[in-house]
Request: fold
Amino acid sequence: MAELADLARTAGIEVVGTDVQRRSEVDPAHLIGRGKVESLRELKLEGEFDLVICNEDLSPRQQRNLELAIKARVLDRTEIILEIFAQHARTHEGRLQVEAARLHHLLPRLIGAYAYDRQVGGRRGGVGARGGFGEQQIEVERRRIRKRIRDLDREIEQVRTQRHQQRTGRRRAELDTAAIVGYTNAGKSTLLNVLTGAGVRAEQKLFATLDPTTRKLELPAGREVLLTDTVGFIQKLPTDLVAAFRATLEEVTEADLIIQVLDLSSPAVEEQAETVEEVLTDLGAADKPRVVALNKVDLLGPSSRRRAIGALSVRYPGAVAISATNRAGLRELLSAIDHASRGDAVPLEILVPYGREGVLAELRKVGGVERTEYVEGGTRAWGWAPRHAVRRFETFSKGALRAPGGR
Ligand SMILES: Nc1nc2c(ncn2[C@@H]2O[C@H](COP(=O)(O)OP(=O)(O)OP(=O)(O)O)[C@@H](O)[C@H]2O)c(=O)[nH]1
Ligand SMILES: [Mg+2]
Reply:
């Protein structure tokens, strides 16, 4: 409920009260019990609020019934998240995805609106023709929405293809890629900013980031990786919303490395970690090499910090405690990123002819150079490259093996 209040505030809504009901089973018509509906209706009459937000998803029928009974607008959790997404989408791609998600959500609710009209008509003594007209209107509207969804899907597909080509371009640059993932508000954008000076908006808001941003990160040894900030995850995110953001989330599925940011200061950090695990599993990215950053340690006192780190280290043994805002623990994090992203490293021994030193600089950038020796004919170097980048160094490694004095 605290998170729902944060979501509401992020959407620009003032929260005047919260209420919880325990029931052994949900009321199919209203979700909540009749007594609760009645007391909400009375509060509404007293002018206490304009809007009811329900933390559970409502069926179209439940939503209609509640609105009729309370005489106020009723939204559910998904609709608040959709509203925030709509407010925060900045790129063309983001906007397309949000519009598609909203229309998907609206489609079954149009039928609900129709049922509502007919019901009201019926109570008033019902004019048959009016119902018939409504039905036609609704059908026209539904057809229009379905067509719009198809158009959007096509456009999103085009954007996806473009992203794919961009990624292939990056592949050509042969840099490893790392995706920063985590629960919303964990500090992902702050971390990207502090590591790369990206200047991405970071705020005390949920879903501040919707559109991915990629920046180059130089690791201490000189190797470069591409770092991408992504949309945050949240509990009970409806699957059609996740599907709408498939293009964005591809940044995660295609990454060589996952950097998972956890907000150690949140009392719900364990549940948030669980949600992130579930989404990563859904995306098929749970088994990728991963570095876990326990962020916001500056907000905890020494003893609660020790307790929280201890608890999470059971699940994530190599986790690094950091503070993105205070720049604490970043050196350790970079070295963890360096090591975790060497999964498919191929050892190389190459001979670089004089005048071709650019090749060594290149190897430092995509992989690493551990030792060099000046020999007749060039520089002999021992190092490594990620598997996908080995080919461009092959010509030099054959030379190295044939060269006199080679090991
Ligand atoms: N005290 C403290 N606050 C932090 C730290 N890292 C991030 N924050 C704050 O946490 C809030 C959320 O940070 P963001 O970087 O926007 O979080 P995010 O994970 O990108 O969030 P979304 O894009 O909304 O999913 C901001 O107000 C940050 O200033 C930290 O190490 N310590
Ligand atoms: Mg962000």
In short: The chain is about 50% helix and 15% strand. The domain at 345-402 is CATH 3.30.70 (Alpha-Beta Plaits). The longest helix spans residues 128-173.
